[in-house]
Amino acid sequence: xxxxxLQRRKSLQRFLEKRRSRLVMVSPYGS
Amino acid sequence: xxAAAFNQETLQQRLQTLIxxxxxxxxxxxxxxxxxxxxxxxxxxxxxxxxxxGEEDKAKRSKKGSSxxxxxxxxxxxxxxxxxxxxxxxxxxxxDAVDEEVTDTEWFFLVSMTQSFxxxxxxxxxxxxxxxxxxxxxxxxxxxxxxxxxxxxxxFGLQTMxxxxxxxxxxxxxxxxxxxxxxxxxxxxxxxxxxxxxDLG
Lengths: 31, 201
Known about the structure:
The structure holds 2 protein chains of 2 kinds. Chain A is an all-alpha fold. Chain A has one helix spanning 6-26. The termini of chain A are far apart. In chain B, a hairpin with a 4-residue loop joins strand 1 and strand 2. Chain B is globular.
């Protein structure tokens, strides 16, 4: 509902950023 | 909030230090933070912070018999991830990474963010209530646990789950490998997560 508690929001943001960087490292095409 | 005694940023660093520096291959670490529900006048453990490290080798994992999620399940996970991404980065954001496979352990970690445990219930709640660590190593130990969270973890390919109590909460670690009890790790948790001293924050 868009009302995500601050700490969960931060954790989620970190998770998504790390996931993005991990997938970029794995794929030779950078996606 | 109860978190005021310590800094959330250092909490993330502590979780990373704990598993990045470990000899064993841990997939994730979560700090379940103790709080009091004023309305119910009951103590509970809620999401403090978490660090997802990931699995060593996806190919190795699939050989262990962890069945991949169905296409429908994958679509559901991607949809949820897309919505969460919009929530964090705004509705106009695009991120190709959300369309990549969401692994079982990633999903388990994400779902964990929505959970909380009354003191004494669930694996983290039990560890906190008894002040004793719980160490479940091996899929049969997880599958045979009375705690739903442990059984759920096994279903998502985790083979070891550990809950170590500290002053303000519980440190939970999970791995897709079988990892036997380590005194060294428990000592590290005691050093890194002893928040009795407010100066640590």
